[in-house]
Design brief:
29% of the residues lie in helices and 15% in strands. The protein has three helices and five strands, in the order αβββαβαβ. The chain has a five-stranded mixed sheet, covered by helices on one side. α3 links the parallel β4 and β5. 8% of the residues are buried.
């Protein structure tokens, strides 16, 4: 087998011509394989989180005043302006809501930034022991 490397022009039978066409077949094959891989992998990458979204239609009633449980730096617990203790927290909340059995009542919890973690968890545990599972934590930005 021989090939002409140099020499005068002219087309010989061993002349290697230039091919200016792009061969796209391997490119299309690779793209189809990647498309199939991503179509299979995309549904597996989703994470489902349960959200309690409000209804799409606005309600005509006024929203009720939220019940806020505050934990002070000293460890004292308040429901609004009324002082309570973690042991009496569920009973005082039932009296505040005017109910005997907890259903879907939401309680907001605000704590001072200097509150010990033990005191905070004691309040949360007292709420859950009393049947209050709809607990919202209030965070405030003090840097502004």
């Amino acid at each position: 087998m021989a090939a002409k490397l140099s020499g005068p022009g002219g087309k010989g039978k061993f002349e290697l011509g230039q091919n200016a066409d792009i061969n796209v077949t391997p490119f299309v094959d690779v793209m189809l394989v990647l498309l199939i891989i991503f179509m299979v992998a995309a549904p597996l990458a989703t994470v489902s989180i349960r959200l309690d979204l409000p209804p799409a239609t606005p309600s005509t009633s006024q929203p009720e005043e939220p019940v806020v449980v505050s934990i002070q730096r000293s460890g004292s617990v308040y429901i609004g302006d009324q002082e309570t203790a973690p042991a009496r927290l569920a009973a005082d909340l039932n009296a505040r809501f005017g109910i005997t059995q907890v259903t879907e009542e939401r309680v907001f919890v605000r704590a001072d930034e200097q509150v010990r973690y033990v005191a905070f968890m004691e309040v949360l545990n007292a709420l859950q022991d009393g049947g209050y599972y709809q607990i919202a934590l209030i965070s405030e930005d003090f840097n502004t």
